Amino acid sequence: MLQGKKVVVVLPAFRAARTLEKTYQDIPLDVVDDVVLVDDASDDATVEVAARLGIRVVTHAVNRGYGANQKTCYAEALALDADVVVMLHPDYQYDPRLITAMAGMIVSDIYDLVLGSRVLGNTVRSGGMPRYKYVANRVLTAIQNVLLGTKLSEFHTGYRAYSREVLEQLPLNANSDDFVFDNQLLTQAVGWGFVVGEISCPTRYFEEASSINFARSVSYGFGVLGTSVAFRLWRWGWHGRRYSRERTVRVYRHRNGTTARSPGNQTPLQGPRCIREELMS
User: Fewer CB within 10 A of the terminal residue: the chain, N end or C end?
Assistant: First the structure.
């Protein structure tokens, strides 16, 4: 708990067996109430390591993609009655000790969404980010700031904290199941008027840390540009599904068997399916 608010950390995992334990050991469990790992059909020992550590585990029967993984993460966190949800990659690239600060910015009721920025503090290159990724990050961020009317230091970090209201209200199921999901969610939050904050977050690039290859990076870059153009068209009056106020209804099942629905939605829900594995202690 943090100021009476429940904090849940979600770990979207794929082949994280080598780095998961180090990541988990640095999570401030005096503040975090629950940790949920969603494994996207890894072919290594990710699930076994998580079970040994006592982490709550949810598994996808087949690999569904980074965005689909996060959709499951957030549904599970909301089902656990989270007030604040922090998304942390289990590859030890981002520092888990910043969870307290990020969650604190949410419970202060000043920010709705907080980004762990690799650019603030000027440590991104010393942390090992490849030069081509750094250049692409800066160029894409500059373009997005112009098209979205924002002044963020970067749009592409994978370390984020959300208020419950953000995850309940945005139509997340309208977003991609791939890597561009993060960017689409952030543009939705900007478009809907949620307040976005940033905190400096040093990162580590090393052999075991997950990273998309050059081809996937190019695909992601075009996806970001497409997302930004779609946002600008929406601001000019085009009504795209991703920004619709008639939001995609989500349903999630509590462990006691009851079914919950995002508030404000009246239609029955057809939610994404996953295979749940209960916490193995």
Answer: C
